[in-house]
Amino acid sequence: MRVLFWGTPAFAVPTLRALGEEGHQVVGVVTQPDRPAGRGRHLRPSAVKDFARAEGLPVLTPKRPRGDEFLAEIRALEPEISVVVAYGHILVREVLDVPPLGSINVHASLLPALRGAAPIHWAIARGHESTGVTIMRMVEAMDAGPILHRVEEPIGPAETSADLTIRLSEIGALALIQALTLLEFGAIEEVEQDHDAATFAPKVDRASARVEWARPVREIVNHVRAMDDVPGAWTTVDGQPLKLYRPLGSPHGEQAAPRLDEGAAPGTVVDAEGGSGRGLGVAAGDGPVWFGEVQPPGKRRMDADAWLLGRGVEAGTRFE
After folding, report:
1. What is the tally of structural domains in the chain?
2. SS3 category, 223
3. Which of 34, 104, 209, 246 is least enclosed by beta carbons within 10 angstroms?
4. Residue 68 structural domain
5. 178-196, pLDDT tens digit by residue?
6. What span, in angstroms and rounded, lies between the C-alpha atoms of 32 and 28?
């Protein structure tokens, strides 16, 4: 099948790779333009662009995927179908209809749940025990098209969004190949979504990643797992940001918990004994939560015990 592929982040690469490995002809790749990245803010290509160039595939990087000139470019590629994986733009009807078989999307949730830009983050943050991948036919509304194929997957109790993203990227690639095979044989039934049951997963940003210490321990644990490793859950200490990782509702390892001030206000450091193996303990809304790793400003992610041995904070310090 002649495929026009659309995608930008690393999550999309396994699907692009699988298309070639399964004998489909990728006639072109559309991805976001190079963006400034890193401390030097140098222009950096997307993960999809890097892979496509290495494979010798034609690459298009429009600022906005629309207009007569762009439509002429993709029509000239003569695709039979478009496959879209985390591209980053809602495609207009004229673009969706260019291939005779239309356009299909790989979405990292069990639609109609978690429509939007960050379904993996919010599945974990909201305490879901399972999620999955949906292959759907695209319409102009966000993630609202008919469902072609779905694969459900459990979420591990300590799994982070970074972990789950890698796993679902591979599952999504396999699900897409299965859906294309069913389409080729006319053996697929398109099922309209229950739009009344839709939930949404908005883009995650720095503001949404901040820890709210008055929330229950379980919610904070889920939130920190969800924000790992980008953008990273964070708080402030003495006006400076501190990122937090590897959360647990009890001390790390099997070490006995210290005697804690049960009346400590949310956000108060209650365990800062460096070298204990427990990590950093902080009061939440209904008890303490521990963190195995931290990232102070201007430094790399590090073991919380090592940071505490360097006098990162003391018991009684208040996080905001």
Report:
1. 2
2. helix
3. 34
4. 2-197
5. 999 999 999 999 999 999 9
6. 14
